[in-house]
Input
Amino acid sequence: MEWVGDARLAAGPEAAWYLEAAFTPGAHIGSVYDDPMTPIVVTRIEELTTIRVPSGRLVVDAPWDDDEIWEYGRGLPTRPPRELAVSIPPGVYRVEIAWTTGPYEFFGEPCDGVETAATRLCVSDDPVAGWEMALGVDEDIDRLRAGDKPRFSSDANVGCFADAGAWTTLSAPFRKVVDGIPAPRDTDGMNGPGRCREPHPSACHRRNR
Output
C-alpha cells in the first residue's frame, strides 16, 4: 500500500514489534496470565480465506454496532463504514491468521491455550519496511492530537475487511442476526467480510520498501 510518511502516523516501537512478531512462527509475544515463565508462542500462519475487493476501496470496520440496533430493525440509515483513505489495486487478496499457544491450567485441568494473535489482509508480498496507522476517508491528519489512534469501535470484539462498494449487502446478514432475525446465507468467504476474532483497534497498513 501507499504510505503517508508522516511521523504522527508511524507505529511506535512496541506496536511495530508486535505486528512483526505476530506473524513470525516461533516468536514469543508475551507470557501466560499469572505464569510469566510460560511464553505465548506463535505456532503457525494459516491462510484463512480470500476476499475480493473489486472497487479497490477497502473498509476495515465492525459489521454492526450495538448503538445502532434500533436503526437496523427499522431499516434506517446508519453511520458510514470506516473506509480507508488509501485505496488498493482491485483484486483478490488472501487473509492470513496467526495462531499461538500458551498452555495453562484451569481448575486443575490442563488447557492447550491455542488462540489467535492477529489477522491480516495481504495486499503485497514485498518486504515490510515499516508500519503506520491508516486514516479513514473522513479523518484529517492535521486534526490528530498526540496519542490519538484512528480506529473503529467493536462491541463484540469483531472486525472485518470488505469492499466498500458492497458494504451494505455484506454487513446485512450480521445485522439481521443481531436483531434476532434469521439471516439468509447468501454470502461466503470469497465475498463476505473477513471475520477477525481479535482485531487490532487501529487499522494499520504496511509501508513497503
